[in-house]
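RETRY 2/3 - previous attempt timed out on the joint model. Re-submitting the same 227-residue input unchanged.
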Amino acid sequence: KNEVEQSPQNLTAQEGEFITINCSYSVGISALHWLQQHPGGGIVSLFMLSSGKKKHGRLIATINIQEKHSSLHITASHPRDSAVYICAVALPYGGSQGNLIFGKGTKLSVKP
Amino acid sequence: NAGVTQTPKFRILKIGQSMTLQCTQDMNHNYMYWYRQDPGMGLKLIYYSVGAGITDKGEVPNGYNVSRSTTEDFPLRLELAAPSQTSVYFCASSFYPGPSSYEQYFGPGTRLTVT
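RETRY 2/3 succeeded.
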């Protein structure tokens, strides 16, 4: 079983829809990262969070440490949001400090 | 700042050949990483470095070597390329103390095919 599971694997939405991508993990973590991989392949960091909720524009990320679960929400989705969204967890400091464990990603396609 | 740069963008190797993937960052980050991304799989850590002169193995280090002689550069060496090393390779960097506290910045990737 993977330590980081994302759902759904693929998601197709109509422009304007509210989108939720889920991430569940089975290990103790110090932080959780949401990343976006563009169709051209580049990867950018969207959020890093260890508790609560963060918002940036139309993107909202939440985390529930007790339930080992995080969600990424996109409000008023747009075709330019089409990308692969990747969840990754950081092991607690003092462990393998270089290690992020990645989910397989959720491929989002937003149709006009 | 250019951020994290990688060269080359694409490369085709024959089985048994060697090559070096270059990675440079200009953000004065202590931490640098090499990942590989295979189709349908999450990124896997190959090697990482917490500063010049210090490197350590990640999850999938076999067939690769790294060095870190400067803060800026973190080259990845493939010796005796094998078809199993066909993948997209990403270099990344972050501030100390790493992914527990700071986001990672990724390079554009190198698409490598070994035939």
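Chain A touches chain B at residues 2, 4, 30-31, 33, 35, 41-45, 48, 86, 88, 90-93, 97-105 (CB under 8 Å). Closing ticket.
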